[in-house]
Design brief:
The chain has 328 residues and is α+β, with helices and mostly antiparallel strands. 39% of the residues lie in helices and 13% in strands. α1 runs antiparallel to α2, α2 packs antiparallel against α3 and α3 runs antiparallel to α4.
Length: 328
């Protein structure tokens, strides 16, 4: 006789640990990126190094997103077990959609990795210490990687409901579909969801901060506002736009749902020319919550010449402004 049991509290703790580790990984990779970007190194080799680092960052983002999907699936399963415990033969909701999202995410991640590797431009010799591999060998390696498939042959079958078999995950009842898409009709890969940044609690009196020092304390990987190509006054919050010019972006008319573009932990920066910002230094805040039509931010603002920390809502139409920037 097989006995099935679950400690739902431990399962939820496992899911929480997965999310924390995903946040930690994102934080480490952001710190590495900032360190590389700030390094005083100019050469063609640096550009190739930065390009390969960006590939690694994208792979890390896909990996941490997969970890969060696994955490979501585990919590859903714990919820199901609690329903069964409270009422035998009660309603039981399959986690097929969540698990299928996870599998689709892995598949899209793998396709993206292969695509990016195939587009990496290498010099005449690709150096892998201590050996030196000719460029032709690198191209052969790319061909081999591109030939790999997902899922691999050893990937186990999944049973998420009636009629589900390998290659037919989540198909539902085992009846053939009315219309069959041709095998070469490949749907576009859905863009990854924005990845939350790691935030830390901020202690102390708000009067001890400026908007920039508060933002850096709440999200340490931001660092100081200083960069090589500053456009505004020294220590101006707006200089974050210059420091992160490779990733900073703006909201425009194409953004109808902020949850598709922004995640908690993003920095929100105003140029000095904006009425909400200081005329010399601009302003910066941290995104705490994201909704389809507005953001909730935290910020250090000067009220009666004393800085105070507060939260505030910013509507979508207010963000659609060419003087406001978001930094992932």
């Amino acid at each position: 006789m097989m006995r099935i049991r679950m400690d739902t509290d431990q399962v939820r703790m496992m899911a929480s640990a997965l999310r924390r580790e995903a946040d930690t990984m994102d934080g480490h990779m952001a710190s590495i990126r900032a360190s590389v970007k700030g390094a005083n190194w100019q050469s063609q080799a640096r550009e190739e190094y930065v390009s390969n680092l960006e590939t690694l960052l994208r792979v890390n983002a896909q990996t941490t997103q997969a970890m969060r999907l696994m955490a979501q699936a585990a919590e859903k399963k714990a919820e199901q077990w609690e329903k069964l415990a409270s009422k035998f033969n009660g309603p039981f909701e399959f986690i097929g959609d969540i698990w299928r999202n996870f599998l689709d995410h892995l598949n899209n991640t793998w396709e993206g990795i292969v695509d990016v590797i195939g587009r990496i431009q290498v010099p005449t010799f690709a150096i892998i210490a201590p050996a030196v591999i000719p460029n032709v060998a690198w191209q052969e390696l790319i061909k081999k990687i591109s030939a790999w498939t997902w899922p691999p042959s050893w990937w186990p079958p999944f049973n998420l409901g009636p009629g589900n078999t390998r290659g037919n995950i989540g198909a539902g009842p085992s009846t053939p579909p009315v219309d069959t898409e041709p095998i070469n009709n490949i749907l576009p890969i859905e863009p990854s969801r924005p990845v939350p940044r790691k935030l830390v609690p901020v202690n102390g009196d708000g009067s001890s901060y400026t908007c920039a020092t508060y933002a850096a304390a709440r999200r340490p990987d931001l660092g100081t506002t200083q960069c090589a190509n500053e456009r505004w006054a020294d220590q101006a919050a707006a200089n974050y736009i210059c420091k992160y010019e490779d990733t900073a972006f703006q909201i425009n008319d194409s953004n109808s749902d902020l949850t598709n573009t922004v995640a908690p932990g993003y920095a929100l920066v105003w140029q000095p020319e904006h009425p909400y910002a200081d005329d010399t230094y601009g302003h910066v805040a941290i995104v705490e919550e994201v909704y389809s039509d507005h953001l909730v931010i935290s910020e250090a603002v000067r009220i009666n010449n004393v800085y105070q920390i507060r939260t505030k809502s910013i509507a979508l139409d207010q963000l659609n402004n060419d003087l406001i920037w978001l930094i992932p």
